[in-house]
Amino acid sequence: MLGTGAADGWPNAFCTCASCTAARTRGTLRGQASALVDGVVLLDCGPTTMYLAERAGAGLDQVGLLLFSHAHPDHCSPAALLFRSWVIDRPLDVVGPADAVDPCRTWVAPDAPVTFHVVAAGQRSRLSGYDVRVLAARHGDPGSSLLYDLTGPDGRRLLYATDTGPLPEDTVAAVAGRAYDLVLIEETFGDRLDHGTDHLDLATFPVELARLRAVGAVVEATQVVVTHLSHHNPPAEQLAQRLADWGVRLVDDGTRVTDGRPTFPGSARTLLLGGARSGKSRQAEQLLLDHEDVVYVATSTRSPGDEEWRARVEAHRARRPPTWTTLETRDLVPLLRIDGPPLLIDCLTLWLAGTMDDLGAWSGAPDSATDEAIDSVVAAWTATSRRVVAVSNEVGSGIVPPTASGRRFRDLLGRLNASLAARTEDVRLVVAGRVVRL
Hints:
Blueprint: H1 18-26, E1 35-37, E2 41-43, H2 49-56, E3 65-67, H3 79-85, E4 92-96, H4 98-101, E5 114-118, E6 124-127, E7 130-136, E8 146-151, E9 157-161, H5 169-174, E10 182-186, H6 205-214, E11 223-227, H7 236-244, E12 269-274, H8 280-287, E13 295-298, H9 307-318, E14 325-328, H10 332-337, E15 343-346, H11 348-359, H12 368-383, E16 388-393, H13 404-421, E17 426-431, E18 434-437
Parallel strand pairs: 2-3, 3-4, 4-5, 9-10, 10-11, 12-16, 12-17, 13-14, 13-15, 15-16
Antiparallel strand pairs: 1-2, 6-7, 7-8, 8-9, 17-18
Helix pairs in contact: 11-12, 12-13
């Protein structure tokens, strides 16, 4: 990975935002996106690519195939061909859309052993021992940007997907069943969702990952690595954790990505705790955005005539992917006991309140029925084979409730949270939208 940054790099030299400042303080500088495959294939070549290669200790002298994704200046710097010609007289194939390839012709001598290939989505060729399949991107005018499916002499497969917005349907169909060894895919805009560009962000990226998994392009053995990163992402430590939850790697410039065990979430159960409006529900949803099929278990009880509550519910529904299924129930045990798609339970606080309503457990002596209900959920949670994410409130950090019923609810919820956390491999506390692993 020669460069993993967007056009302006990360940090942007003119910017003092928290993300740029964190990167600058740590000395983590990302140059414009480009990658070198086996020392032979160069994926994009911008104005800083040569310097990034030197910094990585990766020479470009053996490059025989140059693939341009598009003509934007951070990806296509024809002057590099002139600099190469000063020291190397070796065959080179230059491949890309017309907007990128045609300007390169004037930078090489007429008799230079450089062959230019103007290509379009759907074409396939054999160059420098590599099988090159050209795919459509969603970036700018149709046909002006391309993605590449590359198979090496050893049969390993790579998908290079930058720059692009949500993948065209034809591209998803073309990569079905490819079971790539490595996918390099852009994630430019992070938490900025109003950019209105043909790029991916932390809301659209996992949806595209889910599409690739659904058609067998990304499989269990696939390594997925992000590139073309901008300062609209959170600081690298936070971004790395969020990506790891989806089985995706964040690497530094100069990282050599080789065969090996891909990064997977590794957790069957995740429990998210936090105060009211801390962002815990949104974090729970983000954890599962890379799955097309999720059962969202809403444990709230409808309140006829409560317009404010209805508006809250509708806001939650609106931000869920349309492929998810919503199930309004408090009957959690059967769901946890059967196999199926991932479960998102939101939330255990309302489950407990509803259960206490059903059992009339808000007053009087402590009753065994509520304890049994809690124990049943904990047992089912412990034994579940499903991927499950649950949300619960942390209510024990404030003042002591002034009523006996309030104190009972606080105590029972604390017991429920602690019992589940003791049987959970991934417990997180959400504070002010930030996530702390416990």
